[in-house]
Amino acid sequence: MSDDARPRLIIASHNPGKILEFQAVLGHRWQVRPKADLYVGDVEETGSTFVENALIKARHACARTGCAALADDSGLVVPALEGAPGLRSARYSGGDDEANNALLLKNMATLEADDRAAFYVAVVVLLEHADDPTPLIAEGRWHGRIAAAPRGTGGFGYDPLFVADGYEQHAAELSAEEKNRVSHRALAVQQLLQQLAA
Amino acid sequence: MSDDARPRLIIASHNPGKILEFQAVLGHRWQVRPKADLYVGDVEETGSTFVENALIKARHACARTGCAALADDSGLVVPALEGAPGLRSARYSGGDDEANNALLLKNMATLEADDRAAFYVAVVVLLEHADDPTPLIAEGRWHGRIAAAPRGTGGFGYDPLFVADGYEQHAAELSAEEKNRVSHRALAVQQLLQQLAA
Q: Chain A partners of B129 at a C-beta cutoff of 8 Å?
């Protein structure tokens, strides 16, 4: 099969790490292209769930390019906070990651130890075209709990506070390799590949 | 556990068969209630995918009742027709099932045998509350092909034309028991139960 025979798949992300990751695992069957190459632009994420936001982003990329598109959405969910920070994980406090972590600690201050359970979730969707009624949907969850104080300088988001099940270290203390092996995003990508192989 | 300790789960459907089915498989952990009991009403299905329409219906039921809600959406997908009848399966022709079947045959008249592949799909979602960012999402697909002429009087929808893989009979010639055992909806419900058990 020549390069040109592979259909194009637009990655609806500006994150170079994500684009390389998807290129590595999907390049054998798609010409994986970042959306920036095709001037797709951004779209307002008006969904109420991670999967709806991922679908909005993928559909926008399909509509602008006429190609298949892949998009993801992810965040931290604290069940005892009714799912917050949830979809607003990146803009929870209106400030930076440090401010978001501080607000989360404040909002959890009165919770019992049992209620400090949390999980990171990543949803990845693949739409064949803008009107595709049956996208592939893959989800990964990384379960753990929210510690009483931040630790570590790696990762991003709530990693200084997040302690995954089976770990002593906070996520921000893990190597990038370790995190990429076990995280919600890794699980979601694995699940997507299983569905593509099925 | 007394009956009252089980949280309520609203089934966002008017179909008595579906309600009984979900009651049978989910009744041990939820008080399963049809939405008609709670005057939830209907909501416009404005989604572009089955999963988005199911989420719209479930969220509406959650918002009206303050309870968890389950909703499904399903239809027939013909990849060679870009996914049609898809979300418009029930209203493809603007007429009844017979008119829908006739229109599908007409639209497939020029397709090669290889392009007559089709699948039924059912998506079931469970939202804990109206703002739940991480619904459970289960999907079942029933693969087969579209025959050249209708046969059988059972089932509904495109069953007279749909021949599932591994069957000689058209779906409309199968017993209700057989169809309920192997269909897209059966697979979706099984997958939902696996997720609830995980």
A: 82-83
Q: Which active-site residues of A does the annotation give?
A: 73
Give residue A122's Cα distance to chain centre.
Answer: 4
Select from A27, A55, A34 the least CA-distant residue to A124. A55
pLDDT grade for A161, boundaries at 50, 70 and 90: very high
- Is residue B170 classed as helix, strand or coil in its secondary structure? coil
Q: For position B181, which CATH number holds?
A: 3.90.950.10
- Which residues in A lie closer than 8 A to residue B49 (C-beta atoms)? 55, 132-135
**Domain residues for A12?**
3-197
Overall average pLDDT of the B93-101 stretch: 96
Of the candidates A12, A14, A17, A69, the one whose C-alpha atom is nearest the C-alpha of residue A180 is A17
Q: Quick one: tokens of B48?
A: 């572009």
> In whole angstroms, how far apart are CA B116 and each of A181, B92, B119, B168?
41, 18, 10, 15
Minimal Cβ distance to A52: which of B55, B130, B131: B55
**Does ipTM top 0.90?**
no
Sequence letter at residue A81: L
Instruction: Give the pLDDT score at A1.
Output: 45
Q: What is the total residue count of chain B?
A: 198
In chain B, the number of structural domains is: 1
Q: For residue B52, give the nearest of A52, A75, A130 by CB distance.
A: A52
CB contact under 8 Å between B51 and A86, yes or no, is no
CA distance B138 to chain A (A): 10
Q: Is B26 helix (H, G, I), strand (E, B) or coil?
A: helix
The string of pLDDT tens digits covering residues B119-166 is 999 999 999 999 999 999 999 999 999 999 999 999 899 999 999 999
pLDDT at A16 over 90: no
Q: Which of B52, B57, B82, B125 to mutate to test the interface with A (most CBs of A within 10 A)?
A: B52
- What is the pTM (predicted TM-score) of this model? 0.91
What is the spatial order of strands in the sheet that B136-146 belongs to? B31-34, B8-11, B68-77, B117-127, B136-146, B162-164
Listed in order, strand segments (DSSP E) in chain A are: 8-11, 31-34, 68-77, 117-127, 136-146, 162-164
Average pLDDT, chain B: 92
- pLDDT value for A4: 65
Q: Which of B135, B130, B136 shows the shortest CA–CA distance to B193?
A: B136
A63: closest CA of chain B, how far (Å): 13
